[in-house]
DNA sequence: GTCAGTCGGTTAGCATCGCTAAGCAACTGA
DNA sequence: TCAGTTGCTTAGCGATGCTAACCGACTGAC
């Protein structure tokens, strides 16, 4: 996994958004506004790490932080329109190399990878 | 993959050897003495990064660097006895959590993960 | 034989990303 | 009302990745 991750990273080196930031944008897109701690738990990262990631996205204008009206401690992070567009652009850019590699595989091999991804996701939640 | 990696890392946080260092020890054990550049290529890492990893292992006495008698530029990295022992210890320590999680899966699911690992290894080599 | 170019490895220095410790403000319950 | 908890952030460290630049050893053309 580590070797594959490093190999993949090489293909994305020219992008202006990091891996962790992209993951957060994707989660916000799929799940809607989320609190920093919910994002941290989902990504299996400590709250301070998520604070930093969110701060970076916010300073780029891709997300906004809003206070929860019911609980002054709580914050809610949400995508901006710029964030949504950026997510779409990044998705397009990232699909290139990996999609080409996946296309070279047998359908059953792609299925194996998909199943393994689900297993790893479940494993990460233990 | 990123989430699973971070989850796994939590289980190893108390160890005295890092992930990359462990990987290098394992490669040396399996393949025998190797040059830094061969190690770097295998791990999909830049030569300077591997230099640092090897230097750290060497200063811990787990590997030794020897010059190639035929080519003065070349270096060969090899395990010391301490390195071999350390590798065995670390292997034992690391197997705990993951082995327990894997034991909870169906045999077919473990097979899926094994196949996926092979596919990812091949993918990393492209 | 020599000297320019290449090659393997390293050093220097930077960015990112993970963490823990500690702080602050908001909430909660005895 | 006030002590404890909770959610988030700030501060600061360590590990890991990179590129640029350097050095000594080799190689090949002359």
Query: Low-confidence parts of chain A, pLDDT < 50 over ≥5 residues?
Result: none
Task: Assign the structural class of chain A, choosing from mainly alpha, mainly beta, alpha/beta, alpha+beta, or little secondary structure.
Answer: mainly alpha
DSSP strand (E) fraction of chain A? 5-15%
Query: Percent helix among the residues of chain A?
Result: 55-70%
Beta-strand segment tally of chain A: 2
Q: Return Rg of chain A in Å.
A: 16 Å
Profile the largest sheet of chain A: 2 strands, antiparallel
Oligomer: homodimer
Q: Judging from the principal axes of the Cα atoms, what is the shape of chain A? A: globular
Number of helices of chain A: 6
What's the end-to-end separation of chain A, in Å?
Answer: 18 Å
Specify which chain pair forms the largest interface.
A-B, 30 and 30 residues
Spell out the key features of this protein:
homodimer; 126 residues; mainly alpha; two-stranded antiparallel ribbon; 6 helices; 2 strands; 67% helix; DNA-binding
């Amino acid at each position: 996994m580590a070797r594959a991750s490093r190999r993949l990273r090489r293909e994305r080196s020219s992008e202006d958004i990091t891996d962790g930031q992209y993951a957060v944008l994707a989660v916000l897109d799929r799940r809607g506004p989320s609190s920093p701690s919910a994002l941290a738990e989902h990504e299996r990262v400590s709250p301070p790490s998520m604070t930093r990631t969110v701060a970076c996205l916010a300073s780029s204008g891709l997300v906004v932080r809003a206070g929860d009206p019911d609980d002054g401690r709580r914050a809610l992070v949400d995508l901006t329109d710029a964030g949504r567009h950026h997510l779409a652009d990044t998705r397009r850019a990232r699909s290139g190399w990996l999609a080409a590699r996946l296309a070279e595989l047998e359908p059953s091999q792609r299925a194996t990878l998909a199943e393994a991804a689900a297993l790893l996701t479940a494993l990460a939640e233990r």
